[in-house]
Design a protein that fits this description.
It holds the Pfam family PORR. The chain is mostly helical and 460 residues long. Helices cover 53% and strands 8% of the residues. The N and C termini lie far apart (100 Å).
Length: 460
């Protein structure tokens, strides 16, 4: 009996230990995000570029919020701290502003004695330059919109879809009036929210895809047969891609597979290509449409979510993300930030665009200014010296505790903007005796102006 009790007690103890050590293994999640991370081969240069562009986009959003203020370009940092959730920042707004002294000028207000922020003259000049270059490239914008309408099944597109990719296409903010309304002979607005191409026959000369130029170059320079290059795409595999058995043979057969090109029309509806053979032809047509759509972009990139607004109009009724993952040698999806961005691989080399355009060149100058961070340059030291002298002048006048000296505010703004020559004579007429010491700073302001003009000429 004693032996049975001990055995029974050991058995119950064994059951308890088994029950405590039991684990329930969950089934692995099979979602679009997990498939994206598993099947995607990372490209460090494009990922880094996407991360830097996200920072530049945040800075432009800060500029947009600052421009909505009615009191001018000066905004207090205390007020900007409320924009943290709007901008989606993980750090304090003050720390974010101090990280980019070449973009934001943080200083103490001479009268209110609170910390304020404004954009630096260098970054302002680049913003104005981008706007002017966009206006000069108006005909290119018209050509891009025409090509998008020619790729559409019905020859129409929604205006809000164009507004979503306005910056990617290089369109001005008021493109509805400055382009769609101005060129009434080419575009027609239907129901105020749908734009239509007036005449497709007159624009048949624009119906040559960018990929056709590459195929002609491959055919002439590399002496390849027409059978090899007629329906082929440029393929650049990322470093570290695992190539499975039979992958090269499948890719070779896919490159030779015929399809209906983006600007071609077959009878009434191009979606009928799904019934003409196999599904691969229809998917290859969608690849050609996305390739041409990215080629029309200024920076050859766009967010994946924004492609969904063109699925029905352009006949891309497939899972776009899965299709992009099937062709890692043509497209690359970056997951940096809260959104997913697709890049056109053959347009980039070492993180830079192979064939830059004027709008891209100006935006690249903005990005280079952001990437300087807190590194000091000659222009920044020169600007700090001007700001120190202006601060000392304010201290001499404001130690009395009165605020009647409002005459000094335009002088401070002229020092920080580098436009002292514009209003110096007007202020000198009001009080000549107080400005005897300001003549020493005229040479510094002219040097800063020449630096900005040299930067603008280099970008042009």
């Amino acid at each position: 009996m004693i032996v049975l009790k001990t055995l029974r007690g050991d058995y119950t103890l064994y059951q308890k230990t088994l029950f405590c050590q039991q684990r329930r293994w969950k089934k692995p999640v099979n979602s679009a995000q997990t498939r994206l991370e598993i099947r995607r081969t990372r490209d460090s240069k494009l990922d880094k570029l996407a991360d830097n562009l996200r920072t530049l986009e945040t800075i432009l959003r800060v500029h947009k919020l600052m421009s909505t203020r009615k009191r001018g370009p000066l905004v207090s940092v205390q007020l900007m701290s409320r924009w943290r959730n709007i901008l989606g920042l993980n750090i304090n707004v003050g720390k974010f502003l101090h990280k980019y002294p070449h973009v934001f000028n943080v200083f103490t207000h001479p009268l209110n004695r609170n910390i304020c922020c404004r954009l630096t003259p260098k970054f302002k000049s680049l913003l104005n330059l981008e706007e002017s270059v966009t206006r000069e490239c108006e005909l290119d914008c018209v050509c891009r919109i025409k090509k998008l309408l020619m790729m559409s099944k019905s020859g129409t597109l929604h205006v809000y879809a164009l507004r979503l990719i306005r910056r990617e296409l290089g369109l001005p903010d008021d493109f509805r009036d400055s382009i769609l309304g101005k060129y009434g002979s080419d575009f027609r607005l239907v129901d105020l929210e749908v734009v239509e191409l007036v005449s497709r026959e007159e624009n048949e000369s624009l119906g040559d895809a960018t990929i056709e130029t590459w195929r002609e170059k491959e055919y002439r320079e590399k002496w390849l047969s027409e059978f090899e290059t007629k329906f082929a795409f440029p393929v650049n595999f990322p470093t570290g891609l695992r190539i499975e058995r039979g992958f090269r043979e499948k890719l070779k057969n896919w490159q030779r597979l015929p399809y209906i090109k983006p600007y071609e029309r077959k009878k009434e509806n191009v979606v009928r290509v799904r019934t003409c053979g196999r599904i691969e032809r229809f998917e290859k047509r969608v690849v050609a449409i996305i390739h041409e759509l990215l080629s029309l972009m200024v920076e050859k990139m766009v967010e994946v979510e924004r492609l969904a607004h063109f699925r029905k109009d352009l006949g891309m009724e497939v899972n776009v993300r899965e299709l992009l993952l099937k062709h890692p040698g043509i497209f690359y999806i970056s997951t940096k930030g809260s959104t997913q961005t697709v890049f056109l691989r053959d347009a980039y080399s070492k993180g830079c665009l192979i064939e830059p355009n004027p709008v891209y060149s100006v935006r690249r100058e903005m990005l280079n200014l952001v990437l300087l961070g807190r590194r000091s340059t000659r222009q920044l030291q020169q600007h700090d010296g001007i700001k120190e002298q202006s601060g000392s002048l304010v201290g001499n006048e404001d130690n009395r505790g009165t605020r009647d000296e409002d005459w000094f505010t335009p002088i401070l703004e002229s020092f920080e903007d580098g436009n002292l020559n514009d209003n110096f004579e007007e202020v000198c007429e009001s009080s000549e005796e107080e400005f005897d010491d300001c003549g020493l700073n005229l040479n510094r302001s002219t040097e800063s102006e020449t630096c900005i003009q040299g930067l603008i000429k280099s970008t042009m």
